[in-house]
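User: Reviewer 2 asked us to show a designed sequence for the structure in our supplementary figure. I'm pasting the structure tokens here. Could you produce the per-position amino acids so we can include them in the response letter?
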């Protein structure tokens, strides 16, 4: 397992990536102390659980289609306020 310093890693990143893709582990050290390990992604991905289709099936409710509709009672409370007046001072019902 090769150990390289940060400067060398910056200079030779493409070569180090090729080594990792061949299955080698490359350690990058900072001030002589190992800091990170460069490895092929697939080698790390094996530890992740596999996704299951339909996992959330039946657990998510559909939003009520009326939820987005404006509440006329609430709009009446604001009638005549600056919130719904146009530039001429005419009251505009919210869309």
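Assistant: Here is a per-position design you can include in the supplement:
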């Amino acid at each position: 397992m090769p150990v390289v310093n940060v400067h060398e890693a910056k200079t030779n990143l493409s070569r180090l990536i090729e080594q990792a893709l061949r299955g080698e582990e490359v350690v990058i050290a900072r001030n002589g102390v190992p800091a990170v390990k460069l490895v092929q992604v697939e080698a790390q991905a094996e530890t992740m659980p596999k996704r299951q289709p339909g996992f959330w099936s039946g657990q998510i409710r559909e939003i009520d289609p009326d939820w987005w509709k404006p509440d006329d009672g609430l709009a009446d409370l604001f009638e005549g306020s600056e919130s719904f007046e146009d530039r001429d001072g005419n009251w505009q019902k919210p869309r």
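For the response letter, you might also mention the following. Residues 40 and 46 are 11 Å apart (CA to CA). The longest helix spans residues 13-21.
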